[in-house]
Structure formats: C-alpha cells, structure tokens
Amino acid sequence: MPSSTCLRRFSQLSLDNASYAPIASRNLLTTPQASCFSTSRARYANPTARKGMVAPPKRGTKTLNVKKGKSAPGRDTGKRPAPGERKAMRKRIVLSNINALEVRTLKDLDKANVLSKNNEGQVLGLPNEVVDALRAVEAFKTTQGWSLFRRPATLYRKETTEVAELIKQVEEAGEGQKKTIRRVLIGDRMSGKSTLLLQALMMAFMRDWVVVNLPDAKDIVIAHTEYAPLPNSNPTQYTQDAYTAALLSQISKANEAVLQNLPVITNPTLPIALPSKSNLKQLADIGAANPEASWPIFNALWAELTKPGRPPLILAIDNLSHIMRHSAYLSADVKPIHAFDLTLISHFISHLSGQTSLPNGGLVLAATTNSNSPSSPAMEFSLEVAEKKRYGGEVPRWNPYKHVDERVTSVLRDVEVLKVGGLSKEEARCLLEYYAASGMVRGRVDEGYVGEKWSLAGMGNCGELERVAIRMRV
Amino acid sequence: MARGELSRGLRRAIDSLGLPRCERSIPVPRTIFRPTTARCLSTSISKHAELVSETPEKFTAAPPIDFDKQDGKERGKKALLRTLRVIPASPSYFSAKPTFTGDFINLSALLRKVATLPTIPAAEAPKVAWKTIDQYRIMVNEPVKTQRYHKMVHILRRLNCIHPSLMPEEVTQAMLRYKKASQPGDVKPKPGVIDEWGRAKGVGRRKTSSAVAWVVEGEGGVLINGKSLSNFFPRLHDRESAVWALKATQRLDKYNVWGLVTGGGVTGQAEALTLAVAKALLVHEPALKPALRRAGCVTRDPRKVERKKAGHVKARKMPTWVKR
Questions:
Q1: What ipTM goes with this model?
Q2: For residue A140, what is the DSSP state?
C-alpha cells in the first residue's frame, strides 16, 4: 500500500511547474490552469487559524493600499440603485405607520366643521379624500412627521383659526364685493409655516375651492425643467412647458370633483382642439398631456376659473425666497433671468402683489422658509417692515449702501404677514397627549412634562416640540 | 511676649557683668524662606504671597537698668547684687528656640487648665485656618521643625474643640496668635438681590465663555441673546445644559430667563449659562443650594485649555519619532 505522501505527490504531479519548464519560459499564459482534484487539503490546511485572520505580510512588501477607482482593494461591489431611485426614496411621502397606535378619540374634520372656532386647540384627523388631494398637490413635506402616526391628523392652532377666519371672510363676502386676501407666512425655523399652508389647502379642499399650489418654488427656478421665450412678449417672458403641464395635471387630479362640474363656457383659441361640451378637468388634462400647449391652456383654464359664478381660488407657494431673486435660467444673451420673468411666477406674483385680483374671491398664500432659503435682502426687509406694521415695533430702514431689488420691494410693498409663532402651553399639551395616545410618548403627560418640553422646544416651537418629545427621545 | 523678656534678661545679664556698654546686636531674622530659583512655572502664587505679607514680631528692647532706683530697706552691695542678678524671664531661655518653646509650654499649660471643659466633635468645631509652618517661622524668626509645629497645632485644634458657649476668653486670645490673618468664611459674597422688577442676576463662566442671566418668575420662557432657546442652541443637549439648574429642581415652568452669553463655543456657552441661571435661581430660592450642588450647578468648572508646551506638538503630544 503506497504511503499517503506518495499519493499526494502523485496528485500534484500535473501541477508541478518544473515539468513545464521549457514552455513556461517562453509564454507564461500557456501554463495549463489545472487544479488539484482534492479540495480537502485547502479545507483542512489550518483548522486552528481563526476565521478572518490572514497570515502576516511578508517583510518588505507594501501592505497599505489606498488606491481609489477600479483597482482599489475591497471595493464595494454591491448593486447601485437605479437612476432616480435614490431621489424617489428621498422624496417619498409616508403618511401612515402601522406600528403606531390608533387614536380612538380622534375626530375627523368635515365640510361643516372645518372652519369652526371650536376646533382650536384640538388634534383632528384628515379625511381620506382630502389626504389624496393634498398628496396630489404635494402639500406634504418629507421633513414633517407624518410617518410617525397611524393616519394624518393635524393640530388646530391659533394661527389655523386665523386662516379659517380668512377663508370664512372670502366665502361670506357678498356678490360684487369678493375679496382677495393675500398673506405671507413668516416665523422661526420649524414653527409650522408649511403645515399651516397645508391646513389652508385642506380647508380649501373641504370647502370645494379650486386649489392651485406651487409645492416648492425652488423646483421652478433651479433650471431643472425646460424653458422657452414666450412669443410676442416684451420684456421677454419665459414659459416652462414641462413644469406647467405637471402643474396642470396636479390641478386636474387634486380638484377633480370640482372641475368636473364646471363646463367650459368661453371659447378659447387653443393650439389643440377641445371637444365640445367639455368640462374644466378635460381642459386641464389636455394641457397636462400636451406640454407644448400647456401655457395657453393654463391661461384658458385660469380665464374659465375667474368667470363669474365659479368657486373661490386658493393660490399657494412654499419657499418664497427662491422666487425673489434671479433664477438659474439664462437668457439668449447669457444674462440670468429674473424669477419674475418666468410666466408661472409672474402669474403668481401679480396675484400676491395685489395687481390682479380674483373676481370670485380667494386666498393668496406664500410661505417663507428658514432652512433652505437663499438670501434675498429685499424680501427680508419688506417682510420685516410688514411684520413691524402688523405686530408693532420699530419699522426698520433700508441700508442705503446696499443694492435693492426694486422688483421685489414693489411686489411686497403692501403685502400682509401672518406670523406663525410658538404653540401655547394648552396647544402643546394637546399635541403631546396625541403623541402619547399614538404610543410615541411613553411617559405621563402632566404639567411638568409639558412645561419642560415647551421650554426646551424654544417656547413651543412646533417642530422642535416634535423633535424634543419624539425624535430625540432617550 | 517671650522675645521682649528674653532681650530684657539678656540685657540685664550683660549689664550685670559690668562690662562696658557695647552695641546691642540686633537679631537679624534668619532667612528661612529663601526664594528658590523658579524651576517650574506655577500658577498658585498664594503661598508665596502670604509669606511675603507675614511680618516678624516687633523687637522690643529692654529698658536701661536704673541703678538709682532701689528699695528703701536694703541698701549697699547686697541690694545692688540683687538688681544685677540674672534671672531669665522665660523658662525656655536656655533652649535653642526660646520663643517657640515658650509658645509650646504656654499652650500646653493652657490646655491643662481647660482640659476639663466639655468639647464638641472636631467636625463641628469652627473652621480655623492656622498659620502655616513657614508663616510661623517668619513670625518667630526661629528654625522651628515641622513636626514640633504640628504638635503645637494639635494642641490648638484641641483647644478649638472646646464648646463654643464655654470657650474662655483666655483661650480665644491665645489662639489668635496662631490664626491666619484671613479666616475661611471671612470673605462673604454680597447677597444677591431681587430688583424692583423681580429680576435676579447671576453670572457664570465656563472655558472662555461668560454668561449673565436674569431670572424672573414666569412660565418657562427662555431668551438667550434675544433668540429663543431652540434658535440659539440647535443641539438638544446644549439646551438642556443651559436650563439644567431649573430642570433639575423642577422649576422650569416657574421662571423666565434672559441670558447674555459671550465668548467661547456652543458647549461652553451652554454650560456658562447653567452656572449663571443657577446663581440667579439661588437668589430667588436660597434653600435650593444643596439640590443645585447635587445637580452640579454651583461650582465653576475650572478646566481650561492646557497651554502648548515648547517641544510638543500640542499641550502634551510629542512629535513623531523619526529614526535619524
């Protein structure tokens, strides 16, 4: 019986380089890539060696490899997300959390009670159809904590009641004296400006208004959508067909119930033929489907909506400071285009400045932001003046050595502001109790707890309160 | 005391020998405390300062011997001899350290005298800062050994433990000689006042930040440099630090705070505010001091950035060792 050494020698015979010496010297590539027919040797090579441990490097070899790029060692070979997947993930709006407890006592808002004063200081649920509509107009933001709760609900705070009051004023105005109320929402960072805007849109949806919402002004001006000069305009204005088409589709989707019942009564001259006896939803859908005709269709839709007998309108925009400066678009002679020269924005601005009014009454709302706002000194100054006029205090004066954007100051000259401040202790308590009922706050919600969180949240700053009570929980 | 007697006795002795009057040798204080060359930098100058301020006892010369003044009865040589007879005034005259030995003997005698008086535990006795050995050496101008001095301080401590209500005046006077000029508790900070608007002011420091806080009764609002707490401190931890004095005592919803902070970084500012708020709160409620001390809001944190040293990369980091 041959010894084991002998057998092993035999099995490795074919791998022995010495036997290929003559060819190997001429061409390395021709060396046969044979493998040993037994794998047991490698498997049992060193049973005592721990997993993950490798032998120490040879003396004199370079072991540190900090190369980047394709030849980098230990490169992550995992699958990359598909184009657009990351952004979709980032922008995903989650409105429900099945792990959160369902709040039994949560009442829903409805058309009758949405403007009632009795709602103040309560957390109330949003009905599903309104949630869908709000989602369609992109009123929910990723930074808001909707994903923490079972279903969307919102706190009716003092400022909400103020907005409800404005809506009521518009609705109750008699024929011939319809009001267009304009407000700019200002306030600290995370104080709930965008949420208040959402609440205003929610009320408008419930009261069967037509809602036109520009969800984020930044998207309009950062030159991510195509643009073209508007023919026969002087000074040159620029249309954004793709964006306008998307806006039309949003309008059509969100206001479906209202627009379906409104027939086209004028006879607009459009690049695309309109079927006879069509309604406004069809009109908007045609615009959404044909981006090249979207701007004329938007105009036609607007003309229809401002005809007498039509429902009131709400026009809203978030991130106001982005449109109060030059946009990222360039004109034909490579000059930056002022944001006011974009047709959609100039349309909005003409309503915000009060130059154009809404014949059927309505609300023009703009929310500023503090977390992602490019500096716009003229806007900041105008809003500060407006704030001091409204809430008292010494009206500041413009620094004469600074360049002033006249177009911005003229637009914001007589605009009114609505300051979104901190919650009162009662409101904070109500909110914390809702958190507790949803299972997000474990401790007892008592006077001391509410007072502490209220103080730590910077005197009831709404977003900070959420951070302090829920997100930063230790 | 002893020194005067000693010198008088000495004088008497010299005179009694009938030698021609010689210039009295003025005892020069031996330089016990030599300012050593500064070998290391020290920030604590207090020890040196208090030694410098220490002055040796006044040397009082003995009055000249009056040969004419004699008793009426005895006349002649015998009486004169009695006048001239050398009697050391102090029993410790012939010891090497007469003043110290005299002090020690006196204190021992005093303790023997008052030993039967009731005492209180040492922990409850009034806090006294006794002179350090160096101060005492300069005072008596004698090379007193540390151990001996410690023994004396032991006696003093025992004397200090006599029940305060029964403390004899004699003992109080005797102890006075060995006490430092300034005693703990002598310097009392001015008590804070609540002004006409109900504000109490507190000042706090940490690292290079300094904070002033005004605390008034209210409902929990905090404004720092005119901004709300959440605007001024984005980090939650810093917010909690700033109002920790109120939070730890469950007073957060009972006071309003206005703070002004300057200097330093965010954490330093927050912790400077802790101290300032705590001090202002103590003006409102002095009884909270133990609770605040437990919460760590009373003592100023003395830690600062350590200075960079020559030859080091940072305060302590050394340059990398390089082989030649």
A1: 0.77
A2: S
* Closest residue in B to A450 (Cα–Cα): B253
Residue A222 near chain B (CB below 8 Å): no
CATH of the domain at A391: 3.40.50.300
- Cross-chain residue pair B253–A447, CB shorter than 8 Å: yes
Tell me: the pLDDT tens digits for A235-294?
999 999 999 999 999 999 999 999 999 999 988 888 888 888 899 999 999 999 999 999
Q: What is the CATH number of domain B200-294?
A: 3.30.230.10
Query: How many residue pairs from chains A and B have C-beta atoms closer than 8 A?
Result: 52
Structure tokens at B61: 């010369």
Chain A residues in contact with B231 by the CB 8 A cut-off are 188-189, 458
Alpha carbon separation from A128 to A132, A199, B176, B304 (Å, rounded): 6, 14, 87, 59
Instruction: Say whether residue A308 is in contact with chain B using an 8 A CB cutoff.
Output: no
Residue A403 sits in the same domain as residue A449: no
| pLDDT for B21 beyond 50 | no
Q: What is the pLDDT of residues A445-455, one digit of tens each?
A: 999 999 999 99
Regarding whether A397 and A434 lie in a shared domain, the answer is no
Residues A199 and A319 in one domain: yes
Cβ contact, residue pair A456, B250, below 8 Å:
no
CA distances in angstroms from A246 to A227, A295, B84, listed in the order given: 14, 11, 127
Q: Determine, for residues A456 and B229 on separate chains, whether the beta-carbon distance falls below 8 Å.
A: yes
Are B240 and A456 a contacting pair at CB < 8 A? yes
Residue A21 identity? A
